[in-house]
């Protein structure tokens, strides 16, 4: 019905008419009332909320509107709720609504469930508006209704249950009192076990963890009872979430509860409050979980292993009794779908296989993992896994072996020596493998596990290898020592005894069947490869007709026009071998010089003709998208790449106009796959046409091709291509001005990684690029200039340093906190940062590899690399001001907490060099940071202190200083092979009363005393190694270093700090396990230290087998004391 309001007249008259019609019980139809309520909203939006303009008081309006909530029509009730939502603008109006008891009517609307979703939706939107206006005024009547739906909604199939739970979580954060009084926190935890969607499950449990973080809200959560509800599906073998679950559905229901419980446990270990509350001393949640590993329940064991794999961000092996198959399934080198030519190709593969360039830049994920790992080890995880290995069915046992190997490898990498030196003794496993007093089945399983761990260690020591021939080609040609001896391009000539005689060569020619068989695939390709790599044999030195016939037969097979090699499918069983031999054939012809020129020219011209056909009306099938993606024709680019890396090959490419052909392809449309292949195979180590082609693709191709070419520059950077700083940095700087923001930000990220090397940083400063237009990340890259004198002078002359100091003191220190915590959230949770302000984020179910959170650049951290910068901070009184904030924190409000975090991060960055550390020493602020790490009631502050102490331990001087306060640190950089612990670092026995071998803080850093300015990229320990005597017996040290002396491609973590004295349980008293057996130690009586032999660790690090770091009494237990008292409850 038409009931339009003419707002140009007096608004009070309009409002009177509206309220009269809404309040009338008879004579006005529901449709008319609905129209008037809608007009009320229009009037409100036009005129505003002023009582003078409206002509009625707010109470009078509310009294009339509440009558609409009693109407028999759900549409009218929904419109009334909507009208109230628009009316409630501030706390004053909300108080009047509550005073008139409208909240009971709102609760009634929520409770009614009679196909009235429109009404209930409006009621919930009104409830959210009330929370937004003033959550402290929220009425308990509505809270009761929300909690009722949250408790029973799933059983009643109520579609509003998730919305109600979301509102309860929002309310719990803003007004925990009203939720806790109505038992709403139990409702949240109940729904945690009901929810199998990771993002929702994480949001629910994070609400509880948020309340545990602050002392003001911690009182509302009974962590001993409520938080550990999430463990019940595992710890209670007869667990039933709902009493009325049918017997036939019990198994399915139990699997669903396992999944929900796993999600919540993992999410809890992603937060400081969750870690501390689940790992506290006594009967903690972590002890309950690990204890279950010793109970022979296969279902629970399988579920717990999945939980532990997820907590440590490790890939889950396939369920199989075959150890090798399981090991291959978690190999980072295994093929991934996004490595295809149609997707990310070599750029995606290299990002996984090749390590980040950072050597000493702290990775905050190492800090986090070191703390969690130490807590699990101290709770007996290694012994629990040994029990699973020796008493479980094969598939579960295999998973446990791989998990044990991964954790030992991780412990050796990121835990200090005092916390990890004894772990690899594994006395329980060794005893079971060697003892005849136990069942034969267990002994055999233990013995097999020892052998499997050895194979696992050997695989870790080799490091990840490239999967594709393209990445393998790049690494080999860049002469990176990491992979020189392990290439797929190497012939398998050791299979056959090579007799350096002409008779042997002729015999191999006959046995290869190439001269007398027409079936190409039946040829002996291993022998063919052997012939091609035969010492001192080529066409120049061997004029025999049979050798020329051998070459002609191979040439005919590989020519595109023959359609023999090029028509084979990529997944053919011999595809890889044929391509490898093809590249060796190219090298053979190159070595033959003039005698091989004709053959080589014939092959290259045929490839050029094949390439040129792409511009014709009827392109060759091999160059069509389906052919290029599925056949070996794409590998012709590897042949061209082999030529481009050889001086004679480059001349041949020029002679046959290959470069011109590739330049022409750059101008073609819809040839993205060809351009990807072109970018990926050319050799850019020499100045020439290869770089011209790359530059053209970077600037003139389509958006997708320009982005891929930009990403490929990261591949070249990580592959350590020669002289990258001379030409690669210039190309990256050009990309900073690309019209596509995604490309410019990718180039910026690559430049940030490139600046880990001083040569690249100097080259970037020399170019004086414009970076400020790229936002905060551009500013942070510019700040890296300050770490070397040349860059400091460049920015100082322009007055940039002074401006930045003012900016950071004003607000950027606070912004830095947001930046770091957002990166940590992205790495640890399901949160994904929106792009360009868009709230929608595309998510995928693809499992991500373990992320890195490298510490962002901080102004103060860059200034302290030079004495001039330190003097500038001293003049500005930066350290005293920050120290005051640390000593007098205001923890009652979140603003004060954020200011304290900003001060801590600033001080940590200042303390990351020796110059800055002297400033902290003079101020005496380090003990105050330690006290915060041990006693702060806000647990997220303790977590921040862990990271900050890690920054301080980045230098040897910092490590020594922190050791005086009871903190241990890893004292080697990521790529240090088999570091030797100095004598003064060997752990000394401590009295049992002071033992609390529990990590209190983790920090990453690497020793930087070898550099006067403590630059990140140069700060490493002296090169000290211990190598296996057996391997050294026959090695020729004058030649290239053998495989086991190559640097590992697996990044070693920077320093990890763990408390080693009685102070440790101050930070994580919950990790102090009173009355527990020491895990993973050797014989209680102690073994003598064997300096002659060594034990090889997973990363390749050598350690002597030593006795435990502490001596125990006959009870073999270590009680934890903290000045005679247990620590107070802590949260993160």
Automatic annotation (TrEMBL):
Residues 1086-1105 have a biased composition (Basic and acidic residues). Residues 981-1024, 1078-1109 are annotated as: Disordered. SUPFAM superfamilies: ARM repeat. One of its GO terms (molecular function) is protein serine/threonine kinase activator activity. Residues 993-1011 have a biased composition (Low complexity). One of its GO terms (cellular component) is TORC2 complex. GO terms for biological process: positive regulation of phosphatidylinositol 3-kinase/protein kinase B signal transduction; TORC2 signaling. Residues 500-719 form the Rapamycin-insensitive companion of mTOR middle domain. Belongs to the RICTOR family. This is RPTOR independent companion of MTOR, complex 2b. It comes from Oncorhynchus tshawytscha (Chinook salmon).
């Amino acid at each position: 019905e038409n009931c339009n309001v003419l707002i140009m007249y007096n608004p009070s008259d309009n409002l009177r008419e509206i309220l009269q019609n809404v309040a009338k019980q008879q004579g006005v139809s529901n449709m008319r009332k609905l129209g008037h309520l809608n007009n009320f909203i229009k009037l409100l939006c036009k005129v505003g909320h002023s009582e003078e303009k409206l002509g009625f008081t707010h109470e009078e309006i509310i009294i009339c509107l509440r009558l609409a909530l009693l109407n028999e029509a759900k549409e009218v009730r929904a419109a009334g709720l909507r009208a109230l939502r628009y009316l409630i603008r501030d706390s004053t109006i909300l108080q009047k609504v509550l005073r008139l008891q409208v909240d009971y009517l709102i609760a009634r609307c929520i409770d009614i469930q009679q196909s009235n979703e429109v009404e209930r939706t409006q009621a919930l939107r009104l409830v959210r508006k009330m929370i937004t206006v003033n959550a402290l005024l929220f009425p308990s009547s509505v809270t009761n209704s929300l909690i009722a739906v949250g408790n029973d909604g799933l059983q009643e199939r109520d579609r509003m249950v998730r919305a109600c739970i979301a509102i309860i979580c929002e309310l719990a954060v803003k007004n925990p009192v009203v939720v806790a009084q109505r038992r709403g926190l139990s409702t949240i935890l109940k729904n945690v076990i009901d929810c199998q969607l990771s993002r929702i499950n994480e949001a629910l449990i994070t609400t509880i963890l948020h309340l545990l973080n602050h002392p003001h809200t911690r009182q509302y959560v009974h962590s001993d009872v409520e938080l550990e509800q999430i463990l019940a599906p595992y710890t209670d073998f007869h667990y039933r979430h709902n009493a009325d679950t049918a017997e036939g559905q019990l198994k399915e229901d139990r699997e669903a509860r396992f999944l929900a419980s796993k999600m919540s446990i993992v999410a809890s270990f992603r937060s400081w409050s969750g870690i501390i509350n689940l790992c506290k001393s006594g009967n903690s949640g972590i002890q309950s979980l690990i204890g279950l590993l010793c109970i022979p329940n296969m279902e629970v064991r399988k579920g717990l292993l999945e939980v532990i794999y997820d907590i440590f961000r490790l890939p889950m092996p396939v369920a199989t009794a075959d150890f090798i198959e399981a090991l291959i399934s978690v190999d980072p080198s295994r093929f991934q779908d996004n490595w295809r030519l149609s997707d990310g190709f070599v750029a995606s593969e290299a990002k996984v296989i090749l390590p980040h360039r950072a050597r000493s830049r702290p990775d905050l994920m190492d800090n986090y993992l070191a703390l969690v790992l130490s807590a699990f080890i101290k709770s007996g995880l290694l012994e629990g896994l040994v029990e699973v290995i020796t008493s479980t069915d094969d598939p579960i046992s295999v998973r446990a072996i791989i998990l044990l190997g991964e954790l030992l490898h991780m412990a050796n990498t990121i835990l200090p020596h005092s916390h990890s030196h004894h772990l690899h003794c594994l006395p329980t496993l060794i005893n079971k493998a060697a003892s005849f007093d136990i069942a034969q089945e267990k002994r055999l399983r233990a013995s097999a596990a020892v052998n499997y761990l050895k194979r696992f260690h050997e695989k870790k020591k080799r490091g990840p290898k490239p999967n594709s021939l393209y990445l393998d080609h790049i690494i080999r040609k860049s002469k990176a020592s990491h992979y020189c001896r392990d290439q797929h391009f190497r012939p398998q000539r050791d299979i056959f005894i090579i007799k350096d005689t002409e008779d042997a060569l002729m015999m191999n020619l006959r046995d290869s069947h190439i001269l007398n068989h027409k079936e190409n695939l039946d040829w002996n390709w291993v022998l063919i490869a052997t012939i091609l790599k035969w010492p001192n044999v080529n066409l120049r030195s061997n004029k025999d007709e049979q050798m020329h016939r051998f070459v002609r037969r191979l040439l005919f097979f590989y020519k595109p026009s023959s359609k023999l090699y090029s028509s084979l499918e990529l997944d053919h069983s011999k595809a890889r071998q044929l391509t490898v031999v093809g590249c060796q054939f190219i090298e053979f012809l190159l070595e033959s010089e003039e005698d091989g020129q004709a053959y080589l020219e014939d092959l290259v011209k045929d490839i050029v003709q094949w390439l040129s056909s792409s511009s014709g009306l009827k392109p060759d099938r091999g160059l069509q998208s389906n052919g290029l993606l599925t056949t070996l024709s794409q590998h012709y680019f590897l042949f061209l790449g082999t030529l481009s890396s050889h001086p004679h090959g480059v001349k041949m490419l020029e002679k046959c106009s290959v470069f011109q052909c590739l330049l022409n392809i750059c101008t073609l449309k819809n040839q993205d796959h060809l351009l990807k292949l072109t970018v990926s195979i050319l050799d850019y180590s020499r100045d020439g046409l290869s770089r011209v082609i790359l530059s053209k693709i970077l600037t003139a191709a389509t958006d997708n091709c320009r982005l891929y070419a930009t990403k490929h520059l990261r591949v070249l950077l990580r592959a350590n291509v020669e002289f990258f700083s001379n030409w690669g940095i210039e190309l990256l700087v050009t990309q900073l001005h690309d019209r596509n923001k995604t490309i410019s930000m990718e180039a910026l990220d690559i430049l940030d990684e490139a600046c880990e090397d001083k040569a690249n940083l100097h080259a970037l400063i020399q170019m004086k690029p414009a970076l400020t237009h790229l936002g905060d990340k551009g500013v942070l890259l510019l700040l890296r200039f300050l770490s070397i004198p040349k860059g400091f002078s460049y920015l100082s002359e322009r007055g940039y340093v002074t401006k930045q100091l003012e900016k950071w003191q004003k607000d950027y220190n606070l912004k830095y906190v947001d930046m770091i915590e957002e990166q940590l959230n992205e790495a640890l949770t399901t949160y994904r940062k929106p792009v360009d302000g868009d709230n929608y984020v595309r998510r995928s179910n693809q499992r991500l590899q373990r992320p890195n959170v490298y510490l962002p650049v901080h102004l103060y951290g860059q200034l302290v690399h030079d004495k001039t910068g330190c003097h500038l901070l001293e003049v500005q009184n930066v350290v005293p001001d920050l120290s005051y904030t640390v000593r007098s924190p205001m923890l009652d409000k979140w603003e004060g907490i954020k200011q304290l975090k900003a001060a801590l991060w600033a001080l940590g960055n200042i303390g990351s060099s020796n110059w800055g550390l002297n400033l902290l020493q003079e101020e005496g602020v380090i003990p105050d940071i330690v006290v915060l790490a041990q006693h702060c009631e806000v647990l997220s502050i303790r977590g921040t202190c862990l990271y900050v102490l890690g920054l301080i331990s980045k230098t040897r001087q910092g490590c020594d200083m922190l050791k005086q306060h009871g903190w241990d640190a890893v004292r080697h950089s990521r790529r240090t092979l088999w570091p030797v612990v100095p004598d003064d670092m060997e752990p000394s026995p401590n009295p049992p009363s002071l033992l609390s071998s529990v990590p209190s803080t983790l920090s990453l850093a690497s020793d930087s005393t070898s550099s006067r300015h403590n630059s990140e990229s140069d700060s490493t320990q002296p090169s000290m190694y211990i190598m296996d005597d057996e391997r050294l017996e026959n090695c020729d040290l004058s030649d290239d270093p053998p495989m086991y002396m190559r640097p590992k491609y697996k990044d070693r973590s920077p320093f990890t700090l763990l408390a080693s004295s009685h102070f440790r349980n101050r930070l994580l008293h919950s990790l102090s396990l009173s009355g527990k057996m020491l895990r993973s130690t050797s014989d209680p009586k102690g073994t003598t230290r064997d300096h002659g032999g060594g034990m090889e660790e997973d990363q390749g690090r050598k350690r002597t087998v030593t006795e435990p770091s502490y001596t125990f009494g006959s009870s073999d237990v270590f009680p934890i004391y903290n000045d005679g008292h247990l620590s107070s409850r802590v949260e993160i």
